[in-house]
Design a protein that fits this description.
globular; five-stranded mixed β-sheet; single chain; 11 helices; alpha/beta
Length: 307
């Protein structure tokens, strides 16, 4: 496979046009067109549909371009490391679920990274993207979250993809809500008490080999008519702070966060579902000193906040 042809394909996908890609790359349009055809023949798929509106990625093309971007990023990283004489720079990268105990561990980790030059990458996302980040985007560590009843699905998938995994912790979700919520002073909260409130949720559950509709149905109660989906934690806390009619299911939250946003944490006696947070990384990968420092802080935070 020709790396240059791959670079051309990524640029065409980005621009949606052979002519625009030609202008950016300073390469003649016929040469780019010929290179893409050779690439498609080489790997045995159609990457682009040629339409009147431009070059449109096929489903196979979208998957290929995603992998190609990861490969090109790694090539650029290697070139930059050795051209700039910074081969000894430490690098730490991890993708994680949106969880207060993990972000607290990361904050503490930032205090102990040492004086050596380093680059740190911390991304909050769902389990599927965490796995993809490790497989195609050069992330070395990840933490995935899933309901315990899906354990076999995830372990089978991780084995198939060549990933090692270690249990971090198990827990049941708690409820958090404003101190002004109608349920803030109620001791025995039931599912039925939540029906008139607005749920804040993260909109990206995932279980390998199962339809998203089935997973979504299990994760999100049909008894809740109003739901706000968010993708990062700052917004969820602002909503909880400002709107006493909102609530959220979360892993246990540190007391300092509860006080900061004037929210309370409650247990729901009807909630019996158990979740797992699992550390994943490529098989054969040797943990770096930065990796070990983070995992140490992660275990401290887990023991402190998850009982």
């Amino acid at each position: 496979m020709n790396i240059l042809h791959m670079k051309y394909a990524v640029e065409v996908a980005k621009r949606g046009s052979l002519s625009k890609a030609s202008e950016m790359l300073l390469v003649a349009q016929p040469n780019i067109s010929r290179s893409i055809k050779e690439l498609e023949a080489d790997i045995g798929i159609t990457i682009f549909e040629r339409t009147a509106k431009g070059m449109v990625l096929t489903p196979d093309g979208e998957e290929f371009i995603n992998y190609a971007k990861g490969i090109l990023n790694q090539i650029n990283a290697v070139e930059n490391i050795y051209k700039n004489g910074s081969a000894k720079k430490q690098r730490f990268s991890i993708s994680v679920p949106r969880a207060c105990y993990i972000s607290d561990a990361f904050a503490q980790f930032s205090k102990v990274i040492g004086d050596k030059a380093c680059e740190i990458f911390y991304k909050e996302t769902n389990s599927q993207r965490t796995i993809n980040n490790i497989l195609t985007h050069d992330y070395k560590l990840g933490i995935i979250r899933y309901a315990k009843n899906y354990d076999k699905y995830f372990k089978q998938m991780l084995d198939e993809k060549g990933l090692s995994y270690e249990l971090v912790t198990e827990f049941s979700y708690c409820l958090i809500m404003s101190e002004k919520s109608s349920l803030a002073n109620k001791d025995d909260i039931r599912f039925g008490d939540l029906t008139d409130l607005i749920e804040i949720a993260h909109a990206d559950p995932f279980v390998p080999s199962l339809p998203l509709s089935r997973v979504t149905k299990e994760e999100f109660s049909e008894d809740i008519d109003r739901r706000i989906f968010v993708f990062e934690r700052a917004s969820q806390f602002d909503l909880l702070l400002e709107n006493p009619k909102t609530f959220m299911w979360v892993s246990p939250v540190p007391e300092k966060i509860l006080k900061k946003y004037n929210i309370v944490q409650k247990k729901c006696i009807d909630n019996k579902k158990v979740y797992k947070d699992v550390l994943v990384y490529p098989k054969g990968y040797k943990l770096t000193e930065l990796d070990k420092k983070f995992i140490k802080e992660l275990n401290i935070a887990k023991n402190k906040y998850i009982k």
